[in-house]
Design a protein that fits this description.
Blueprint: E1 12-19, H1 22-31, E2 38-45, E3 48-49, E4 55-56, E5 63-70, H2 82-94, E6 101-104, E7 108-111, E8 114-126, E9 129-139, H3 155-159, H4 165-179, H5 186-196, E10 203-208, E11 212-221, E12 227-231, E13 234-238, E14 242-245
Parallel strand pairs: 1-2
Antiparallel strand pairs: 2-5, 3-4, 5-9, 6-7, 7-8, 8-9, 10-11, 10-14, 11-12, 12-13
Helix pairs in contact: 2-4, 2-5
The structure holds biotin.
Biotin binds near residues 45, 49, 65, 66 and 67.
InterPro entries: aa-tRNA-synth_II/BPL/LPL, Biotin_CoA_COase_ligase, BPL_C, BPL_LPL_catalytic
Protein name: biotin--[biotin carboxyl-carrier protein] ligase
EC number: 6.3.4.15
C-alpha cells in the first residue's frame, strides 16, 4: 500500500507492478546517476536472481521483493560485511514475529532450517563510484503448496497470522537504515551477527567450486566476515560459498 509506506530519513522508495529483477533495476538506476538510499520494490518479480547464479522464484503478491542501493561510508576492506549486515538487519526486523529466526552464514534467514528470506548483495560500478545493491526476498504469505517441501517456509505459515506487507517492508528497510552504522565497528557487528548465526559451532558441508565438498566445523568469522572452518587438524576460510548445515 504505497499510501502507508514511508522511507527512512534521506531514503526514497519506488514501487512497480512488475519487474524482472529489482537488483537489476537498482543497478540500472545507479548507473543512470541515482544516489544511495534508493529502495526499489516490485509487486511481481518475474526473473529474480539468487546467490551463486540460482534463480529466485516468487509467486506474485505473496512475497516481498526489493533492493536497496547503498554506498557504505567505510573503507573498502569493510565492504564484505555488507551482505552479513543485511542478513542481520532482516533478522532483527523479523525476530519479534518469529522468535525462532536465525541466520545461516552468510545471509540466509531460516526458521527451523527452512528458508524464510534470502539476500543477494552485488557490488556495482557507477559514474558516482562503486556502490552495493542489496536485494532482499522474503517469503511472506506462501502456502505450503507454493514452497519447496522441507526447504522453505513463509512468515505467515510460521506465525499463523496474516502479514501486513507494507508494515513489514517498512520494518526491514528501517532496520537496515538504522543498523548501517554497525559497519563502522565491525568487531561489534561480528559479535552481534555471531549471536544470531546458527552456523557457528556446527558441522557443515562447504560446497566449493568444481563440485568439491569439504566437511568441517564452523568455528568463527574472520575480520572480513569469512567463515573459518576447522577440518583435518587445520582450518580453512570460505569467503563466498554455499554452506549446508549437517544434521547431528
Ligand atoms: C538467495 O537466497 O539466493 C538470494 C535471493 C535474493 C532474492 C532477492 S528478491 C529482490 C532482489 N532481486 C533479485 O533479483 N534478487 C533479490
Amino acid at each position: 500500500d504505497p499510501d502507508r509506506l514511508t522511507a527512512p530519513p534521506g531514503w526514497r522508495i519506488v514501487l512497480s507492478d512488475a519487474s524482472p529483477s529489482t537488483n537489476a533495476d537498482a543497478a540500472r538506476l545507479a548507473r543512470e546517476g541515482e544516489e544511495a538510499g534508493l529502495v526499489v520494490v516490485t509487486e511481481h518479480q518475474t526473473a529474480g536472481r539468487g546467490r551463486l547464479d540460482r534463480v529466485w522464484e516468487t509467486p506474485a503478491r505473496s512475497s516481498l521483493t526489493f533492493s536497496v542501493l547503498l554506498r557504505p561510508d567505510v573503507p573498502a576492506e569493510k565492504w564484505p560485511w555488507v551482505p552479513l549486515l543485511t542478513g542481520y538487519a532482516v533478522h532483527a526486523a523479523l525476530a519479534d514475529r518469529l522468535p525462532e529466526v536465525v541466520l545461516k552464514w552468510p545471509n540466509d534467514v531460516l526458521v527451523e532450517e527452512r528458508k524464510v528470506a534470502g539476500i543477494l548483495a552485488e557490488r556495482i560500478e557507477t559514474p558516482q563510484g562503486p556502490m552495493v545493491v542489496v536485494g532482499i526476498g522474503i517469503n511472506v504469505d506462501q502456502s505450503l503448496e507454493e514452497l519447496p517441501v522441507a526447504l522453505a517456509t513463509s512468515v505467515s505459515l510460521e506465525t499463523g497470522e496474516p502479514v501486513d506487507r507494507t508494515q513489514l517492508l517498512g520494518q526491514v528497510v528501517g532496520s537496515l537504515h538504522g543498523l548501517q552504522g554497525l559497519l563502522d565497528d565491525t568487531d561489534s557487528l561480528r559479535a552481534a551477527y555471531a549471536d544470531v548465526c546458527s552456523t557457528l559451532g556446527r558441522t557443515v558441508d562447504v560446497h566449493l567450486p568444481g563440485a568439491v565438498v569439504r566437511r568441517g566445523e564452523a568455528l568463527d568469522l574472520d575480520s572480513s566476515g569469512a567463515l573459518v572452518v576447522g577440518a583435518d587438524g587445520g582450518t580453512f576460510t570460505v569467503a563466498a560459498g554455499d554452506v549446508v548445515h549437517v544434521r547431528p
